[in-house]
Design brief:
Blueprint: H1 2-42, H2 49-62, H3 66-79, H4 84-100, H5 104-117, H6 125-128, H7 134-143
Helix pairs in contact: 2-3, 2-4, 3-4, 4-5, 5-7
Length: about 150
């Protein structure tokens, strides 16, 4: 009788654990579907082509591919970056590339264009401290007068 009771108890316990695990898996799948649906609704709109090109250009720049990056920044600008801050950002990176290449006049012109597009434009502290383009930008910023439209 004791072995029958243990056996019956063991089977019931096994069945209870199985049902519990099965129901936990089922509720997890529903939660995953709900989370995916909520994440999709909360996602920002996809980047347009110009913004995608800008992002690719920044990645190329960060990887040291300056020739490729320059073409990509120019393409992003030609595709029509909508926000002036994005346009200024593209010109900032082009300025960096010119400065590093020893082309200070072009560097200065790119910074000027960035400031004309966005008068609030500034470099991050790390960028401003760069020994090559930092002084060029600081001198220009001090004397810059926004372009008249």
């Amino acid at each position: 009788m004791f072995s029958l009771r243990t056996s019956l108890f063991g089977r019931s316990l096994y069945l209870l654990v199985f049902v519990f695990l099965f129901s936990a898996c089922a509720s997890t799948d529903v939660k995953k579907e709900e989370a995916t649906s909520a994440e999709t609704k909360a996602m920002p709109p996809l980047l347009d082509t110009a913004q995608q090109e800008l992002a690719s250009a920044v990645a190329s720049y960060e990887n040291g591919n300056y020739k490729v990056a320059t073409k990509q920044f120019e393409r992003a600008l030609a595709l029509g970056l909508k926000m002036r801050q994005d346009q200024a950002r593209a010109h900032k990176y082009k300025a960096f590339i010119h400065c590093v290449g020893g082309r200070k006049r072009q560097c200065r012109e790119e910074f000027r264009t960035a400031l004309d597009l966005d008068p609030a434009f500034d470099l991050t502290p790390a960028e401003a401290g760069h020994p090559t383009w930092g002084p060029v930008f600081r001198d220009l910023k001090r004397s810059h007068k926004p372009a008249s439209k």
